[in-house]
Amino acid sequence: MKILVANIGSTSLKWRLFDFSNPAGQLLHKGGFERVTDYALAISDCLAQIKAAGHIANESDLAGVGFKTVIAKNVSGCVRLDERVLGAMEAYNGLAPAHNPPYLTGIRLFGQRMPGVPLVGLFETAFYQFAPEAMMRYAVPQTWSDIGIRRWGFHGASHKFIAERSAELLGREDVAERVRNLYMDGGKSSVKEPALRVISCHLGGTSSITGIRNGLAIGNSLGMSPQSGLPHNNRVGDLDAEAIPYAVKTLGITLAEAQRQLTKESGLQGLSGLSNDIRDITSAANQGNANAKLALDVFVASARHWIGSYFFEMGGAEAIVFTAGIGENRVELRAAICANLEGLGIELDSALNASTRAAEGFISQAHSRVKLLVIPTNEELVVAREVSRLLRSEVRTQTA
Ligand code: ADP
Description:
Layout: E1 2-8, E2 13-19, E3 26-33, H1 39-52, E4 64-67, E5 78-80, H2 83-91, H3 100-113, E6 119-122, H4 133-136, H5 142-146, H6 156-169, H7 173-180, H8 182-185, E7 197-202, E8 208-213, E9 216-220, H9 243-251, H10 255-264, H11 267-272, H12 278-286, H13 290-313, E10 319-323, H14 324-329, H15 331-337, H16 350-355, E11 361-362, E12 371-374, H17 379-399
Parallel strand pairs: 1-4, 4-6, 7-10, 10-12
Antiparallel strand pairs: 1-2, 2-3, 5-6, 7-8, 8-9, 11-12
Helix pairs in contact: 1-3, 6-7, 12-13
This protein binds adenosine-5'-diphosphate.
């Protein structure tokens, strides 16, 4: 079973091709184009490269094409991208203006190019479908809520991967199996006692933290848009709702300019005044730059704030997991996030922490009540896996 995953940006097309003869999935090919102006041509060139590499003879050799879609009205999960679902994505273009329109264009072009091949979307909001409503609502009037102003949560592919893999590493095959089947049976498969509580920290260009109880997310630090929660590379995290009207009035800028500054010149970039990359900020901080140090401190304080909130809500945690560019590589930030928490049973092993970069492993002391882990995420593989699960389950349903 060969599955192509297409990552569509406003001017880019990146792809990875996986083979699922074995359920773990194997990467066969990857590539991409930047500065795309003609998507139909980019798709043709992508397919030509995959054929030239000998992976497929024609489009019908693909079992499916998967997309890491962002958000749609009243639709989530891992679903076939038929006209009903595309219409639901279109209805929320306003909530994800940078993501939904290019995806819609790309998906329709794939559909025209290969009418017989299933197109499947794994929505970034999918992992939060089962979260308690109290964790997902803003305290706004019903009319606001009705137009989609609520906490949706994002990074669902990555956090679901962490939910499954952490359960495997912690010896909870029952929970891992529930996570594998989540979008097929809605999380109904039973798990044993005691509960497995995991806090997943996806720290990267965009960062988010999620609490996961028995494989089901209870919330996510990203709210209605990916402009919330922790500070991001150049985008603001949580911000008081009064800040925007106040800045517009006091700085004499337009609303569009305020939005530009909050999405291009804020986050770690805005705090440090130097760079949006933790590597540059850390070297400046090490040379005594106070704003760079402050940027790191704000990031760490925000990470601890969100970890603490899920820790408290779940009454503790069996594990805290770090993933993505910062979570997998930045030893000193993991140490800062876990500092002085012995009273909560969170004890980092500094030697294991220092030696675990871009690799899977435990980084807590052997007696730490809460296990600390690093698990590299791989979002394209997650999409491909979910697509293969969906297509296999459809075959099972048809033959049953
Ligand atoms: P994105 O959300 O754009 O996928 P990443 O997950 O790659 O971003 O995370 C980007 C951040 O992670 C940057 O701040 C970068 O400094 C840090 N990072 C990524 N890779 C490494 C690495 N190999 N060593 C140190 N830091 C890294």
